[in-house]
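Data availability excerpt. The first of two example chains:
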Amino acid sequence: MTGSVTTGSVTTALWGRVEQQDFRSRVRGALLGSALGDALGAPIAGLSLDGIRETHGPQGLTEPAPAHGRRGAVTAATQLTLFTVDGLIRAHVRRDTGAWHPPTDVHRAYLRWAATQHDWGPDERRKENGWLAHEEWLYARRGPDRACMTGFGDEILGTLEQPKNPTARDAGAMVRSAPFGLLVGWEPALVLQLAVECATQSHGHPTAYLSAGALAVIVHGLTRGESLDAAVQRALGLLGSRAGQQPVTDALQRATAAVTRGVPSPEIIASLSPGDGHGAEDALAAAVYCALVAEDVRHGLRLAVNHGGNSTATGALCGALLGALHGETALPAPWLADLEGRPTLLELADDFALEMTQGPTLHGPTLSSPGWLTRYPRA
C-alpha cells in the first residue's frame, strides 16, 4: 500500500514556546470551530433554503438557535471528532509498546463512540477505559450517520481492500476527519493516507474517503501556517494519483473558481453541487468556498449553513478550516459561551497539543506519567 501509515515514517517536530502556543491555538480553533459550525447548522438540518428563510427570516439563520432541546447543541459529527482525537492520542501513547498501527487505535476509539449510542447503564459505562467515554453528555444520540452506525456495529476493521459500506458516499466520515490534519509532525501524504484508511472503516466509496483525506490535508496545511488556497492546491496535488479522485478534485476546483463570481450567496453554494448537495464532495466544496470568501468566522459559518444542502456537515467543515486558519481567538465568544461540551472540547484539544509537543516527557519505554496513562491507556 503506497504511503501506508503502518510502515511510513513520521517526522518529529522540534517545538519552541511560541510554536507550541500557536499550535495549541490552532488545535483549539479547529475543534471548537468545527463544533460551532455543527451546532449552528443543527437547527436547520434537513430544511431547504426556502424552509430556512420561512423559519428564520430572509437572511436565514444568523445566530445559534435551539436544537435537541438547547441552544448550542452539537450532533454526532462533533462526538465522532472527539473520539478521532482520543484515538490519535492513544496511537502515539501505544507506540511505546512497539505497536504502531494508528488506524487500529482510531477504530477502537470509534467503537467506544458506538458504545455511547446504545442504552448502556452506569455499570457498562464504567467498563470503558480512559476518560472520554465517561463524559455523560456524549451518550445522547444526535442523528448519527447510518453508515457510521453500521460501520462500527461490529469489531471488524474496514480497510481500503475491504471497506465497510462501499456505496456510502455522504459526508459522515469526512466530518470527523479534521483532527488528522492536526498531525503537523507528519508528512502530508501520510496524513492523507491515514484519513483515507480511517474513513473506509464506515464509508467505502472513493468519493467519501478521498474527501475525508482532502479535508485532512487542507487542515494540515493551515495548521502549519499555509494559506487556505495553498493548502487546497496541495490537496489537489496529492489526490491526483488516486483512483476515483475526479469527483473530489472537480469539487475543489469548483470551490476555488467560484471565489471570483461576485458577492457570496446561497445560490453560488448550490451551484457547487451538481447533484443533490448531500455527497461528501458537495459538502467539501461548499465548506472550502465559504472559508475562502469568509470576512470572519461568523460570516463564513453563516454562509456555510444557509443553503439547501447538508447544513451541519458544511458548517462543521467550514468551522474546522477557519479555526485551524485563524486560531481560537477568532471564534465568536457569544457562540462559544453556549456551545455544548465546550469544557470537554478544550480539555481534549489541550491534551492533544500536549501529546504532540511534549509526548516524550509524558510516556516512554522506561518512564511514564501514571495520570497520563490513566487518561489514555496503552491497552
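And the second chain:
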Amino acid sequence: MRVGLIDVDSHNFPNLCLMKLSEYHTRRGDRVEWWDPVKQYDLVYKSRVFTDTYSKDTIQVSNADKVIRGGTGYGPGENLPHEIEHIRPDYFLYPRFLGTAYGFLSRGCPRNCGFCIVSGKEGRRSVRVADLSEFWNGEEEIKLMDPNLLACPDHERLIEQLIESRALVDFTQGLDIRLISRDNVSLLNKVRTKAVHFAWDNPDEDLTEYFRRFRELTSIKSDRNRRVYVLTNYGSTHEQDLYRVNTLRALGYDPYVMIYERPTAPRVTRHLQRWVNNKRIFHSVSDFKDYAPMKKEV
C-alpha cells in the first residue's frame, strides 16, 4: 500500500501517533510518506492533537481510497491498536528531532481537571504502560510526555529507568507538585534533568509550600530549569494570575503563562502572557505595571 501521513497541527513538535503508524506500516512493507495532494494513496492518516482554538484543519483529502482521522483535536475516538501503540516510533519521520526519544511511561491522571481531557480519555488512575526501552534506544535526550508520572504507583521504578539511561530528560507535561516527597525528589535528583515542569492551574489552591519544599530538596540549581505552567482565563481573575506569577518568581521558579481559549481572553491576560513568556522582557521588567503596553493603556 501507499500510505500518506498528515500532521494537521504542524511539524514543530513530533506527532508520536504518526511516528508509530509510520513504523508499523514500514515493517509491513508499505510505502509511507508525507501526504502529497497530487499523488494517489490507498490510505491517509490525519492526526491532530489540538482543537480548533489552536489548530485549524483546512486540509481536504480527495486522493485516497480511505482516510482515517484521529487524535485529541478531533475529540474522543478509538485508541491505537496494541501492536501499534507499543511499537518503537519511527524517529526518522522528523529528521530535525533525531537524537531525542519521545514517549509515555504512564497514562492517566486522578485530578480530573475540567480543562484537561486526560482523565476522561485515559482514566482517573495513573498506570504504568511501558518501560523506557519501548521508545528509547540510546538517544541523547528523552522527552517524557506522561500526564502525571508521580501519581503512578510504579513511578519510583520508572524514574530509576530514567536514571539508568543517563540521557538528558525533559519532563514536558509537568510533574504534580502536590505529590513530591523526600524519596521521589531524591530519585529525581539522580536524573540528568534538562528541565522539570510543574503546573499551578487552580488559583484557589495555594501551592506555595509545595514549591518551597521542592526548592529545598531539588538539586536543580537554575530557576530557568524549574518551570511552572500558569493557567489563565479559566475562572481566575487578573489579580490571581499575577499573584501566582509573582509568587513563583519569588520562590525561584520560571513561570510560563498558558491561556485557556485565547480568543476569549481579556487584553490584560494577553499582555500578561507576553510579559511573562518573553524572558528577555520578564527579567528586565520586574513589575507588570511597568510593562510598556500596559503603561500605554493606563
